[in-house]
Every structure is written in structure tokens, then in C-alpha cells.
Amino acid sequence: MSQLLSEGLQIGDLNYLVSEKIHIDEYNSKMGQASDVVTLSFKVRDIMPANDLVSYLENGYDWILDADVSTGEVSDNNRLVFVEAQRRPGLYKYISEMLTDLDHLTGIKLDKWKFKWFMSEDYLPLNEETFEKVVPTTPDKYEKSVAAFASYKTESQKLTDDINTIKKLSGII
Predict the structure, then answer these.
(1) 145 touches 119 (CB < 8 A)
(2) pTM of the predicted model, to two decimals?
(3) Can you say how many angstroms the Cα of residue 42 is from the centroid of all Cα atoms in its chain?
(4) Is 117 exposed, middle or buried (CB count within 10 Å of its CB: 0-12, 13-18, 19+)?
(5) SS3 at position 41
(6) What's the CATH fold of domain 18-137?
């Protein structure tokens, strides 16, 4: 008597295993330059669910250039799942459709996802308005954002240095 082998993810298989926080552009792309390719990363509890998620994403979305699992744990039994896609206008539409589909597996509704662009300080609600304001969706916008951030950091460091000089001269430190 043979049994039917059923493979693939079922509804709810990833409940409580995938974090609702997404990091964008925090990691370097394997598929191209950072200005051309956006990277998303999800934290997933344990290696097998992470591998299942990668397989699901790679087989389900033709706009995904690559998906992969971190080679090691990032924290207690957690792995990162990386997704790479071309940086282009309309990217939010693709990501939101993917996350809406993932609701069936994770139980995370679209309005519960949060994201952090690598130059942002805080997690933000993942909606079209916020995403379009924060995440550069073209290579040109990416280059300008990185340059602006570098300039801001330089100015911020100069201000910190000036404050420390004043403190030293006044005997505070």
C-alpha cells in the first residue's frame, strides 16, 4: 500500500516562524550593483522553514532575481532569507503582492509588515507612500540617496567634533 507524498507549503505552515520586519538594502547583492539590485531580508526561525520560504519565493515570482538562506544563524536558531530584485519603479507593487500571498503561510497581514531601509534609523510601516519616500526605486535615486547620506554623516561628525572641542576647551571633559 503506497502513501501519497505531498510536498510544498500549506496554509499556516510558517505561522510564528517569519518576522514581520524586513530589512532593505542592508546586505550586498550577489546579482549586481547595489544601485541596480535591491535586497530584502527576512528573519526566519530555523533552517527548514527558511529553505521552504526560499523555494516558495524562487518558484513563485519571476521578478525575484535570487533568493537564498544565510549560511549561519544570525541569532538563536534564526536564519536570514535574502531576496534580490531589480531596482525599478513600481517595486512596491511586486513586494506588496508577495507579502499579501505570504499572509496565507505566515498569518501576517500586509498592514502588519514593517521595514527598515539600511540608512533609516527606525522601522516604518510598509505601505506604498512610506516605501516610495524612503526606498530609492531607480539606480539614480539610489546613488543620490547614498551621496546625501554620506554628506549628512560628514556634517554630523563635524558638529560632534566641534561640540567635543568646545567641551574640552571649557573643561567639561
Answers:
(1) yes
(2) 0.81
(3) 6
(4) buried
(5) strand
(6) Translation Initiation Factor Eif1 (3.30.780)
